[in-house]
């Protein structure tokens, strides 16, 4: 093995996973090689390990397979956040139950997620999932954001995600009750600290931007309220068009597949730790404010929302959904009511995403000694985006 790991991650463990997922007790693992599956800054609340395993079956023919192990952190700020909000409990529930049913509704052509191979609730808490990279999917360059082609794919797949969740909740209303926490939860003082300290750090940075430094004090005063704004946006209102939201809907949590000319032709979601049953506007606002080229959100948001609504309506009809999809007027009204949530995402999530990979830090490094150190706040791209957003207010 090329990476030092705990003693449980061995040939016997991988063999157990493969035998269970393949339903084949003749599988014998010959060798495994492990390495980190993501770079620092690609994900913040788990550790990802890629395992390349060589194994044989009863036929003695040797095979190779790549799988991903997603581990819950065992200490530090990340461990506290994961435990307090129950992030792995949510993701295990989504991947072993809810997403499986949603994928069955949509069929293989519009699969929403990787297949889960194994889940373990303790000692350690983990998921084993198929490696989407081996299927041709990959992440985009997070520093550049999504262009129109990528954005259209993302909005179509998000619409199918929402539509399938509506149908599933109609068939089994208990699904709604399974996802009630999300990212904004009063139980997590550490997550709240990320938002408070992140906003204060942004205010300090804005003070150095002559174009908009007059807003620095206003942003600083918002810091004590920023997390509550997120909580308020997630309050369930029966008058809204409610769905199971992905909840952490940004470009790092999407993988794309490309044709030979480099054009994106397919997209799939990863990371279902923040899923929450609430207004569909939340995922839309999150995606628009975290991951889409500013020029597109400024001039082509209607194109994206039309694509979302068309796919949502078509899919709901195909799945014999009883509920009616929202009209464009209703959808825009919902987005407008929660517009301050977009500010929360722009202040906290965008700087994390836009940080270049060579400078990225994890939560334990960001929240070090009661300070907030995020190199993404120094990004010229962030400065340009926030100044442009300010000029449109």
From TrEMBL:
Superkingdom field: Eukaryota
A Pfam family assignment: EcKL
Residues in CHK kinase-like domain copies: 127-318
Protein name: CHK kinase-like domain-containing protein
Organism of derivation: Atta cephalotes (Leafcutter ant)
Gene3D superfamilies referenced in this protein's UniProt entry, alphabetically: Transferase(Phosphotransferase) domain 1 (1.10.510.10)
InterPro entries in UniProt: CHK_kinase-like (IPR015897), EcKL (IPR004119), Kinase-like_dom_sf (IPR011009)
């Amino acid at each position: 093995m090329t990476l030092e790991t705990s003693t449980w991650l061995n040939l016997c463990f991988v063999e157990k996973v493969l035998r269970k997922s393949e339903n084949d007790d003749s599988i014998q693992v010959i060798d495994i090689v492990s390495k980190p599956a993501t770079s620092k800054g690609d994900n913040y609340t788990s550790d990802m390990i890629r395992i390349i395993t060589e194994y044989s079956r009863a036929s003695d023919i040797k095979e190779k397979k790549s799988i991903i192990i997603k581990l819950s952190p065992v200490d530090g700020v990340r461990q506290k956040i994961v435990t307090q909000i129950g992030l792995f409990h949510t993701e295990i529930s989504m991947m072993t139950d809810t997403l499986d049913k949603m994928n069955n509704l949509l069929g293989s052509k519009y699969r929403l997620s990787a297949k889960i191979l194994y889940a373990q609730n303790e000692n350690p808490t983990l998921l084993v999932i198929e490696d989407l990279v081996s299927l041709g999917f990959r992440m985009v360059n997070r520093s550049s954001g999504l262009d129109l082609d990528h954005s259209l794919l993302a909005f179509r797949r998000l619409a199918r995600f929402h539509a399938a969740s509506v149908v599933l909740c109609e068939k089994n209303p208990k699904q709604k009750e399974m996802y009630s926490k999300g990212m904004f939860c009063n139980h997590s003082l550490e997550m709240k600290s990320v938002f408070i300290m992140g906003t204060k750090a942004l205010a300090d940075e804005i003070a150095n931007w002559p174009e908009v430094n007059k807003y620095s004090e206003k942003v600083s005063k918002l810091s004590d309220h920023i997390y509550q704004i997120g909580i308020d946006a997630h309050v369930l209102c029966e008058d809204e068009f409610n769905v199971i939201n992905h909840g952490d809907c940004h470009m790092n949590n999407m993988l794309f597949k490309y044709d030979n000319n480099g054009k994106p032709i397919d997209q799939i979601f990863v990371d279902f730790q923040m899923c929450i049953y609430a207004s569909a506007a939340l995922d839309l606002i999150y995606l628009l404010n975290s991951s889409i080229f500013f020029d597109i959100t400024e001039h082509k948001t209607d194109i994206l929302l039309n694509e979302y609504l068309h796919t949502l309506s078509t899919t709901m009809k195909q799945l014999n959904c009883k509920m009616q999809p929202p009209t464009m007027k209703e959808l825009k009204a919902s987005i407008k009511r929660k517009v301050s949530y977009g500010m929360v995402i722009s202040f906290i999530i965008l700087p994390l995403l836009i940080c270049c990979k060579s400078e990225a830090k994890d939560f334990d490094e960001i929240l070090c000694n009661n300070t907030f150190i995020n190199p993404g706040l120094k990004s010229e791209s962030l400065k340009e985006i926030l100044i442009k957003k300010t000029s449109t207010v």
